[in-house]
Amino acid sequence: MQERAIETRRNILEAAAKVFDERGFQAATIADVTAEAEVTKGALYFHFPSKEALAEGVLREQDGQFPTPERASRLQQLVDTVMVQAYRLETDCMTRAGVRLTLDQRASNIDRKGPFERWADTCRELLEAGQRQGEVLPHVVPADTAEVLVGAFAGIQAMSQAYSNYADLSARVGALLRHVLPSVAHAPVLVSLDLSERRGEKVSAELLALHGEEPQRGRPVTVG
Amino acid sequence: MQERAIETRRNILEAAAKVFDERGFQAATIADVTAEAEVTKGALYFHFPSKEALAEGVLREQDGQFPTPERASRLQQLVDTVMVQAYRLETDCMTRAGVRLTLDQRASNIDRKGPFERWADTCRELLEAGQRQGEVLPHVVPADTAEVLVGAFAGIQAMSQAYSNYADLSARVGALLRHVLPSVAHAPVLVSLDLSERRGEKVSAELLALHGEEPQRGRPVTVG
Predict the structure, then answer these.
(1) C-alpha distances in Å from residue A90, one per residue of A76, A84, A112, B48
(2) How sure is the predictor about B107, in pLDDT bands with cuts at 50, 70 and 90?
(3) Which of A2, A72, A113, A185 has its CA at a distance of 20 to 30 angstroms from the CA of residue B135?
């Protein structure tokens, strides 16, 4: 794709994320997105033939994010992955739109399982690696623990959104990890983990320094 | 209220639950509900002056459900409460509509925190009682654990809905409890808990026998 076409496509996706985030999938219209992006209907349809295609575009943007840095402790890497996602939800409109689309039971024509599956895969792989190196208890079934974590995270972000518009998300996610990890990890690993509320912000800054620029596509927004 | 008015009100709420469950709050219209309930607009407005009032009516119906029977083990009572809710989600349209309204980030004019708070209160009280009688570990903060459980449950039901239309909900909720309870309970209590998949159905049958009729208002539906 030409540079200008890439720019237009990104601009449309950012506008779509904002509209889906504010209005939800069902209430959002193509006209809302063209108005927000300041593009013609023709330009939009060139990149995205339908509202479903737009939603899938927003969902796929989540995959373009850089993974969290490798850690000697795979469980710390798992914690970092979860805490960075909490921080992105607090600060990034594209991430919020992706999560809301995934949880939107009305958006039934789009593949809502995909993001759950990708997240569960990432968590499962880290738990498997942790088990191989003896951090994770032998009775743990990584796939089961991964699905508990991903499902629980999805609900805790919804609760945080309802209670505080995400202001307490990092604290709630920290509480989830403190409740689940003792069933999963050896005690000496547990005490060495950094589960503090600022962990997500810290690792995001580390990613920024590593990769030069924010990997996220959405416009940063202030959530109060 | 006269018996007939009570009957009409219940009929309207059941129709509203069905419509909210199928279409979501934002897309649902008063006309959908009057058509489903086979009542006039005037009859509906007599009981519910707005769509928001209807949604709040559906949410309040959740409170009319009988609590799970008292158990010597407060943690078993907590497990029963959670497993019965999973079973209701699988089988009862009114419960599903209530949960979806609570998680619907578009339904911003209605009080979505209420159901989270009531559920968290119930869990907190059982954890406090469990702590008083030595079942719950001394370091546990019942309010924190309650909010983790309620938030996690909300997400796990969404994941189960996306994956299997609730067919695997009891299994997923059992996995959540097996991951969280070891951080909360003394080991001898843990091994005595019934966390089996059929627990919700079993306790629901017990409630039915105790109270003579299903406490739920919604029409039972088959979820496949």
Answers:
(1) 21, 10, 21, 36
(2) low
(3) A185
Structural domain includes residue A122 = yes
Whole domain around residue A57: which residue ranges?
3-61
CB atoms inside a 10 Å sphere around CB A115: 21
Give the distance from CA B176 to its chain's centroid. Answer: 16
Nearest residue to B93 via CA among B6, B2, B215, B220 = B220
- The number of C-beta contacts closer than 8 angstroms across A and B is 130
Q: Which residues of B touch A (CB under 8 A)?
A: 23-24, 26-27, 100, 102-106, 112-113, 116, 144-145, 147-148, 150-163, 172, 175-176, 178-180, 182-184
Q: How many domains does chain A have?
A: 2
Say whether B174 sits in a helix, a strand or coil.
helix
Shared domain check, B90 and B54: no
**DSSP assignment letter at A66:** P
Q: Could you tell me where the DSSP H helices lie in chain A? A: 3-27, 30-37, 41-47, 51-61, 74-91, 93-103, 113-132, 142-164, 169-180, 187-192, 199-211
8 Å CB contact between B35 and B22: no
Q: How far apart are CA B82 and CA B88, in angstroms?
A: 10
The residue in chain B having the minimum alpha-carbon distance to the alpha carbon of residue A143 is B175
Closest CA relative to residue B53, chosen from B5, B107, B117, B99: B107
Distance (Å, rounded) from C-alpha A41 to C-alpha A210? 38
In Å, how far are A138, B14, B170, B171, B177 from B199, measured between CA atoms? 27, 27, 9, 10, 13
**Do A71 and A134 belong together in one domain?**
yes
* Bigger pLDDT: A100 vs B15: B15
**What mean pLDDT comes out for the span A186-211?**
93
pLDDT exceeds cutoff 80 at A182: yes
Complex ipTM tops 0.95: no
Beta bridge partners of A92: A220
